[in-house]
Structure formats: structure tokens, C-alpha cells
Amino acid sequence: MSMISPLATPYEFERFVKTGEERWNSREGAEITTVVVHHMAKTDFDEVPEVWREREASAHYGIGPNGEIRAYVGEEKRVWHARAANSYSIGIECCNVTEGPEWEVSEATIDSLVLLIQDINTRYGRKMRIVGHQCAEGNSAETTECPGPSLIPRLAEIVGRVNN
Questions:
Q1: Residue 18 above 80 pLDDT?
Q2: Could you tell me the sign of the dihedral formed by the alpha carbons of 150, 156, 157, 160, in that order?
Q3: Which of 46, 57, 70, 121 is most buried, most CB within 10 Å of its CB?
Q4: DSSP type of residue 8
Q5: Is 93 helix (H, G, I), strand (E, B) or coil?
Q6: For domain 9-163, is the CATH number 3.40.630.30?
Q7: At residue 24, does pLDDT exceed 80?
Q8: DSSP per residue over 18-60, as a string?
Q9: DSSP per residue over 61-89, as a string?
Q10: For residue range 85-136, what is the model confidence (pLDDT) as tens digits?
Q11: Is the CB of residue 129 less than 8 Å from the CB of residue 35?
């Protein structure tokens, strides 16, 4: 049985690629300890699963500009979003409201991100470590700009809001 937040609506849930070409696999018993925040580098929330049809990547959740939370892959699975951190993390993509170089996200997206991480913490009974993609194990500012110049300076605020 797939595990997803009750705040999320399944959206093309685990059906955005052909069978045998999944962009996820087993966590192999790894404990979930971390949430990795991403930006979609897209302003069309509906396009996200389509990108994964062509790219070997995926995420557990996406949050739209109006705050809507969509589940793409069950949390019990290891998605391909953050290199070495994949096995022990949950990946959340935040839709942008502007294109680059700013890649801004809406306040509604930030508010839903906080609520989703609070829900994850509650369901797992602990506070998750919250990092931006470039700070996840195996990544750096040299390998990715994600979660983008709009979200990076807000990560401390997001962590504070989640934990209060």
C-alpha cells in the first residue's frame, strides 16, 4: 500500500512513465530522515509528470502556485531527486510563478510546503531534516541551482515555521 500525505491528491500517481521505466525503486530499508525541497523550474504545474517521461527523475510531491499538493510517488519508495540522499529523503517540488533567473514561488506554495512537512513530521513521529536540493548529500551549488534563488534564502524561515 502506498503511503501519501492526507493533504495531497494523487496526480498521475506512479503512472507518468511506462511500466518497466519507473523513476523510483525500493528504499531497501533506509529510514526516512530528510525532506529535500526543490523548485520545478516550470510555471505550469500540470507539466511536471510530463518532464519525467523524458528525464530520469521523480519526486514524491509537488506543490502548485495556489498551494495545491499533489502526490506523484508513495513515500515508501525511493524517488530519483537528490542523488545520494534519495534513499532516506522525501522530495518535494515547488512550482514557480516566474521563470529564471528569479524562479519565484508563491506564498501559497510556501504555506503548503510548511503544512506538508509538518504533516510528514507528525506521521513519522520526528522532526525531519529540511534541506534544499543543492545541500542534499551528493549535491552542491556547482551541480545544481535548485531550489533556486527564491527558495534558498527562505529555507531557514521554512524550517522555523515547520518547527514552531
A1: no
A2: positive
A3: 70
A4: -
A5: strand
A6: no
A7: yes
A8: -TT--SEEE-TTPPP-EEEEEE-S-S-GGGHHHHHHHSS---S
A9: EEE-TT--EEE-S-TTEEESSSGGGGGGE
A10: 999 999 999 999 999 899 999 999 999 999 999 999 999 999 999 999 999 9
A11: yes
49 pLDDT higher than 90: no
Q: What pLDDT is recorded for position 87?
A: 94
The CA distance from 60 to 96, in Å, is 17
Asked if 16 and 46 count as a contact pair (C-beta separation under 8 A), the reply is: no
**Which residue type does 23 have?**
R
Question: What does the domain layout of the chain look like in residue ranges?
Answer: 9-163
Place of cell 524550517: 159
Axis-axis angle for helices 155-163, 107-124 (nearest 10): 50
CA contacts within 13 A on the Cβ side of 118: 13
Confidence band of 51 (pLDDT split at 50, 70, 90): confident
